[in-house]
Amino acid sequence: MSHLRGSLQSIALSDVLQLLHVNRKTGKLFVTQDQDKGILFVRNGEVIHAEMGALTGDAAAFGVLEWEKGLFEFATPAFNCPTTINRSLPDLLMEGARTCDTRRRFRSIFPNLRAVPWAHLQGPKLAQGIKLFPEDHRVIPYLDGYSCFSEVIATSGENEVTVCQTCMTLRDAGRLEVFEPEREFRVALLKTGLFRKAGHVELSADLEIFWSTMGPSRHNPIHRVRIAWPGGESVQTVQFVGHDNYKTVAVPKDLMQAWGISEGSSVKISPAP
User: Fold this and answer.
1) How far, in Å, CA of 117 to CA of 209, rounded?
2) pTM for the whole structure
3) Do the domains 183-272 and 110-179 match in fold?
4) Is the separation of the CB atoms in 114 and 146 below 8 Å?
5) pLDDT tens-digit map of 174-227
């Protein structure tokens, strides 16, 4: 068992870990699902550390334990890692199953993690009459009406369950709304000239009207947008113009070159603060 590999469709990850636990194995369990990768660090049959993307510890372990498809491979190289998981394997698996059930319940309520939660009350009014916990207060500053659920999870340092629980508490109290401002566009070249500089991108004025019905954009004019493409993202000044083609975004040539995209490329855009 010094080298073990297989498919999660054939054997559940929890069963693999229990096998390593019974035999008190030490090594790294590499797990992949599509483009996602995770590592569980096992010492004497106990998981002592986990990594999945930007997550570590319990949150990473619970995330990997949810995967039902993909591949795993256990290897036994020497390793040094921090101890970020301080619970027995049976406890880890039990808590992981509970967290998975909770996450699935929240995903039925908030199915799109690219949606944007906005706490539209500020200061003492937001918490008046409802019970909030310390973790809720750590999440609330990021519910700004511009960051999507995935971004709130990444920047707040709290896991998906905690963020969704905070949002559900505020939503049920009528103090949070969720909307989906992100739209997909095709890139077109922004034509410039002697009297037309290229320090911005251009979108149809119809988009300004559409976004002005959502979140903080109902009260604040939209001056900037977040543009995301497969290789990254950027926040740019925007001008809304009266052209009819609301499915394209006009981008200066130098920005296209800097971003590594071309005319006809697909990008996703939403308002930015």
Assistant:
1) 20
2) 0.76
3) no
4) no
5) 999 999 999 999 999 998 765 556 789 999 999 999 999 999 999 999 999 999
The 10s digit of each residue's pLDDT in 16-26 is 999 999 999 99
Name the class of domain 183-272.
Answer: mainly beta
CB atoms within 10 A of CB 34: 8
Whole-number Å distance between alpha carbons of 78 and 224 = 49
Asked if the model's pLDDT at residue 2 lies above 60, the reply is no
Contact of 16 with 7, CB cutoff 8 Å: no
List the alpha helices (DSSP H) in the chain. 13-22, 57-65, 89-109, 124-127, 134-139, 149-156, 160-172, 205-211, 253-259
What fold is seen in the domain 110-179? Arc Repressor Mutant, subunit A (1.10.10)
Residue 37: other Cβ atoms inside 10 A: 14
